[in-house]
């Protein structure tokens, strides 16, 4: 009898072990299948969503920034610009940009991005091309203000789209890829302008700068039309290219993995107005806003870089425009490297502050010497440092303020709106009487680099404390916490 009981117990134990091994094997197979499915999903996104938003952002910034190249043609003379009127024309675009961003992101959560974003791109293409038809300062101000309004939906909308499809560990590199559209647009706009001014200036009675606006506006419009057929909507949508691009298993996984990726938080009302309330009441929204505003102020040189390079007296107008490209090309490589390292190490704070220290060093070198090679080298430092850190700030903000999709949409729009304040006032750093060295501007941009570094370290400290609280709750409840990225 005793032997029989022991045998039964032994058999039950063997059966339990076998069942456990079977469950573990099934779980392992399931995880492998899920990982394979996730890789396929991300690969499809990288081949459709990313190229579309990159191309649109490339033209978005090229259409906005071509005024910097036009300044080296007969732009100011033809329009009769005097004093700081060019600075006002640069600044006024950002006023329109600020006014439209938050309403646009709130609208975006309720409409089809595959129609809304390309439609905005078509509008800004037409408005940018219309700059070629202005004849005076008043007309330029009107066109630039409207251009800011119609361009405003793109960056926060595109970034919100990326954060709706990619997880936090994937987002920094993709944001850097997207942000490289800005850097490369700035680089290639100088090369394009050099070709246009050399070959089309005066053709059919039009100045080179007019041809520049027309050609780039037409190319942008064409890209917008194509994007309408490729851009997917949100993961849960049944419209757009997602209908043929993703199968049902991929759609379900796309929704589930973003839901799992949110920082731990109680279930709340997910309406857009409640999301706005959550975003406004979260003090971290405003810390990120200050951080990014200071960062944007630090790269106030962007619309004046051709004028800065002109001050180096490197040669003709064509040589000057060509020489504006290398620092931005290097900045693109630096941005990718920083973003790759940030994703790989799952770290944000030092990947923002260290590049900004390099940027500050570049500004210091520019102020400290008259040596042209040293000042040109310094431009590589401050361009690489500013642009390398900027994309990581956006990523950090989106992955921190992501408790609900509505909050993420509103918070990222608020952060981006506040950052535009730096773009509104930074053009006034570059006073005509300070050319060609612009020493006060360089000192101001160095100061804002330092402010951004300080806010970055403050945020890192605050989030470390928040993570400790989440870990304590995990110990109490037994529910695994999703932590804030540091």
TrEMBL record:
It is a multi-pass membrane protein. One of its GO terms (molecular function) is transmembrane transporter activity. The chain crosses the membrane at residues 141-163, 175-199, 211-231, 283-299, 319-340, 352-370, 376-397, 442-463. It comes from the Eukaryota. InterPro entries: MFS, MFS_dom, MFS_trans_sf. One of its GO terms (cellular component) is membrane. It is found in: Membrane. Residues 49-464 form the Major facilitator superfamily (MFS) profile domain. Keywords: Membrane, Transmembrane, Transmembrane helix, Transport. PANTHER family: MAJOR FACILITATOR SUPERFAMILY (MFS) PROFILE DOMAIN-CONTAINING PROTEIN, PERMEASE-RELATED. This is MFS general substrate transporter.
